[in-house]
Amino acid sequence: MSYITLNTKKLAQNYDFLNHLFDRHEIEWAIVAKLLCGNEIFLKSLLSVTDTDICDSRLSNLKKIKELSPETKTVYIKPPAKRLAASIVKYADVSFNSEIETIKALSEEAFKQNKIHRIVIMIEMGELREGIMADSLPDFYAEVLKFPNIEVSGIGTNLKCLNGILPDREKLSRLVNYRRNTEKLFKKKIPYISAGSSVTIPLISKGNIPDGINHFRVGESLFFGTDVFNDTYIKGMHKDVFTLTAEVIEMIEKPMVPTGKVGKNLTGESPEYDEKDRDKTSVRAIVDLGVLDIDVKQVYPLSEGIEVLGASSDMMILNITDDKNNLKVGDEINFGVSYLAVLRAMNSDYVDKKVVNSIKIKNRSEKAEV
């Protein structure tokens, strides 16, 4: 059976790298853990390296985090469904919001549960995903202040995820002004501006983070060492926290070009072939991994001389003609993986999850909340 491995030691080193970076710039941060899909083995690994707040966009994942570590502060990072208000208050210490009626429901549930539920008001900054329009912030904030058991701990925004809109100093400065004007108007402090994410990290070293942007939400850069802004990697961070492994279940020399009338394959494509390869052969290996488990375009063999040719539902086909490792049936092949590849594998019950280089759980300490 194929499996995905998380290297706890490398994850811890990436965490320490980011933690020192944010500490130097007096920025609080929280980890976006939705990539782990609530997997208990991997969540325990994450919790062993961090005492930082954990963000997720799936309620079941936050519930699992609270079961494993009740003291961990949890953040629900998409506008909640109104009907889930009771569970949001129960399992999320903080939620991101953009609808008054939902906040009203959260207020009612927080009162019933004898809790203070904290919210971040999300503001639209060009990405056209979640968030209120900026000019409606004063009226929106005034309505929120009427609700008991609700505390506004910040304003925030989301960039890059839908339309690829990148953060810049001008957008971030506008957020700082929105907070300043709102605080002045209502004579009430708003502690945080949660406007940073993995894509915003490169702006720190360039001095393009204005004073006042004091909270980041980071997932991809932590787990993959990626510089999302420049589509590269951050020097000093590991890009191989995750490894995907699959077993060779067939290895036979076959023609390079298929024969017969070509229709559409499983994914709706009609593969094209170079006719000059018509009479050539290659050594093909099949591994126990397919499109049910991964996106073929988001994985890459870690050994030289291996080429991914394609995949069906539960088998991936490789060209190993130039393999120098003398692979045979029963051997394992390791693959590097992107964010989307890990996300797909984590959602597959057919891919086992393993942890290596476990470390002793840290003593947890109180951290500032969003």
Description:
- Strands 1, 12, 13, 14, 15, 16, 17 and 18 form an eight-stranded mixed beta sheet that branches. Strands 2-3-4-5-6-7-8-9 form an eight-stranded parallel barrel, surrounded by five helices. Strands 10-11 form a two-stranded antiparallel sheet.
- The relative contact order is 0.17.
- With 370 residues, the protein is of the alpha/beta class.
- It folds into two domains: 8-228, Alanine racemase (TIM Barrel); 242-337, Lyase, Ornithine Decarboxylase, Chain A, domain 1 (Beta Barrel).
- Strand 8, helix 8 (201-205) and strand 9 form a beta-alpha-beta unit.
- The protein has helices spanning 8-24, 40-49, 59-68, 85-91, 100-112, 137-144, 169-186, 201-205, 220-224, 339-346; strands at 3-7, 28-32, 53-56, 74-76, 94-97, 117-122, 150-156, 192-196, 215-218, 226-227, 232-233, 242-255, 281-287, 299-301, 307-311, 316-319, 332-337, 352-356.
- Its cofactor is pyridoxal 5'-phosphate.
**What is the first-to-last residue Cα distance?**
41 Å
Query: How many beta strands in the DSSP annotation?
Result: 18
Helix content: 25-40%
CATH topology category name of the largest domain: TIM Barrel
CATH superfamily membership of the largest domain, which one? Answer: Alanine racemase
> Element order, helices and strands?
EHEHEHEHEHEHEHEHEHEEEEEEEEHE
- Tell me the strand percentage band: 15-25%
What CATH architecture of the largest domain do you see? Alpha-Beta Barrel
- Average of pLDDT: 94
What is the radius of gyration?
24 Å
Structural class: alpha/beta
